[in-house]
């Protein structure tokens, strides 16, 4: 191709007085904007006549020395021109051609002809269009996907490489069935969803084009064995969401690895036909474990697995303080724990204290609400809260109050004992009086003796 272009330029140079021929190589991605360079190097470039043409489509755009502009019939339609030369650059001698919404058929050899005071300059630009296509663009799980990378016109000696989400793809990549440079066939799966990039290498130059591939199926949870986090005692929604537009049948959310498989039918409030999530009204320790979300759509049975992790806060007293421990049934994804103290004043205004770190923290005289946030490498995984109530005796200041209460209790106990003794003596006197009343003569004798004793006492005092 380059040899043919050189011959053409040589012929133009010989046949045209003062002509100059330059060749520029450009590669651009389909759908993008590209600028084909063409500049006048004379000290005074106005007024000049410029003509842009394509080897197989004739005139693209031209401007007469009078300033009138024309577009070729293949490049102008319904008032929308995909090609233009910015007027503001004409005075600077810049007649570069701008093409918007680049198409595959736009690839080819372009010529910019500049006529200025009998001097003619030819600038040639080889435009190659790089395009990546996927069919079907949104396959279902298990369907075959065909991807193709094309360069129009072809570039001899170019090497094609494939990338998926910035990682190289090869024949041994899971899901890849056939890899033949510009063409790749794979079986649709979650791991193949994302950005597919075709890289074209030639010498030290690299060009690339990308396209997005989305795989239809179950979108929530996003992948198998996804860990979900729920706080003990709180409600939780177990996700089971299919691609929008799907109306799956025989959907089921089931807990596995239990003696009797647990099937949940308490659906979420979503009205969409593809959201089959279920609600656990109150999480209990037994909810921890592995679950599946399954459903049938377009004759294909789809399944997604997930693991529910239950979180709780365990409290214990230790040397005048309260120990709070954040415990998860599976902490393999946790990289850090953050503790936040939330309190409210008499007006209900909320305030947040400083953040503490660690799975277990010591709390002193800081009752109220404590929240444990567990963090993973990609951010927050979840949180769990608890209410802390401090009892008397947890601090030294409250110990004196305990001693004072102990003294009061002892004093009341002493008075109670005296009262019981008095009551016992009164009971004994009452019983004795009852026995005496049974013998009237004895009672007379007792009274007589008692009166005589009193008389003797009075006479002795008088003496």
TrEMBL record:
Residue ranges occupied by any Ig-like domain in the UniProt entry: 31-123
A biological-process GO annotation: T cell activation
One GO cellular component term noted in the UniProt record for this chain: external side of plasma membrane
Ranges annotated as spanning the membrane: 409-427
Keyword field: Membrane, Signal, Transmembrane, Transmembrane helix
Molecular function via GO: MHC class II protein binding; protein tyrosine kinase binding
InterPro entries on file: Ig-like_dom (IPR007110), Ig-like_dom_sf (IPR036179), Ig-like_fold (IPR013783), Ig_sub (IPR003599), Ig_sub2 (IPR003598), Ig_V-set (IPR013106)
A Pfam family assignment: V-set
The organism's place on the tree of life at top rank: Eukaryota
Signal peptide bounds: 1-21
PANTHER family documented for this protein: MICROFIBRIL-ASSOCIATED GLYCOPROTEIN 3 (PTHR11422:SF12), T-CELL SURFACE GLYCOPROTEIN CD4 (PTHR11422)
Record-given protein name: Ig-like domain-containing protein
Record organism: Crenichthys baileyi (White River springfish)
């Amino acid at each position: 191709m380059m040899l043919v272009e050189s011959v053409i330029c040589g012929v133009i140079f010989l046949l045209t007085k003062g002509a100059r021929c330059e060749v520029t190589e450009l590669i651009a991605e389909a759908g993008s904007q590209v600028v084909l360079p063409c500049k006048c190097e004379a000290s005074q470039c106005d007024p000049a006549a410029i003509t842009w043409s394509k080897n197989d489509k004739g005139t693209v755009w031209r401007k007469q020395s009078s300033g009138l502009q024309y577009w070729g019939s293949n490049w102008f339609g319904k008032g929308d021109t995909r090609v233009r030369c910015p007027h503001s650059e004409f005075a600077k001698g810049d007649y570069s051609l701008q093409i918007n919404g680049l198409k595959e058929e736009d690839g080819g050899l372009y010529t910019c002809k500049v006529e200025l005071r009998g001097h003619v300059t030819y600038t040639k630009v080889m435009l190659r269009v790089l395009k990546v296509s996927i069919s079907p663009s949104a396959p279902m799980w298990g369907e075959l996907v065909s991807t193709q990378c094309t360069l129009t016109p072809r570039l001899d000696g170019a090497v094609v490489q494939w990338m998926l989400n910035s990682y190289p793809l090869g024949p041994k990549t899971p899901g890849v069935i056939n890899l033949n440079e510009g063409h790749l066939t794979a079986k649709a799966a979650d791991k193949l969803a994302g950005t597919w990039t075709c890289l074209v290498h030639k010498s030290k130059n690299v060009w690339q084009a990308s396209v997005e591939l989305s795989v239809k199926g179950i979108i929530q949870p996003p992948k198998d064995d996804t860990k979900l986090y729920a706080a003990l005692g709180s409600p939780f929604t177990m996700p089971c969401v299919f691609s929008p537009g799907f109306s799956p049948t025989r959907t089921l959310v089931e807990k596995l690895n239990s003696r009797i498989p647990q099937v949940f039918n308490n659906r979420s409030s979503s009205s969409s036909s593809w959201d089959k999530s279920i609600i656990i009204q109150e999480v209990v320790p037994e909810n921890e474990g592995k679950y599946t979300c399954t459903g049938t759509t377009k004759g294909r049975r789809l399944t997604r697995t997930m693991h529910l992790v239950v979180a709780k806060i365990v409290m214990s007293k230790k040397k005048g303080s309260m120990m709070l421990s954040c415990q998860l049934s599976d902490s393999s994804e946790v990289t850090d724990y953050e503790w936040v103290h939330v309190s409210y004043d008499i007006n209900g205004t909320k305030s947040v204290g400083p953040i503490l770190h660690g799975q277990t923290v010591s709390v002193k005289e800081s009752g109220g609400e404590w929240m444990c946030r567990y963090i993973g490498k990609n951010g927050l995984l979840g949180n769990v809260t608890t209410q802390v109530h401090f009892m008397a005796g947890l601090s030294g200041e409250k110990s004196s109050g305990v001693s004072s209460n102990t003294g009061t209790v002892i004093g009341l106990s002493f008075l109670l004992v005296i009262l019981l003794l008095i009551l016992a003596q009164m009971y004994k006197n009452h019983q004795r009086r009852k026995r005496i009343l049974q013998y009237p003569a004895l009672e007379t004798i007792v009274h007589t003796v008692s009166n005589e004793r009193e008389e003797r006492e009075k006479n002795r005092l008088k003496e």
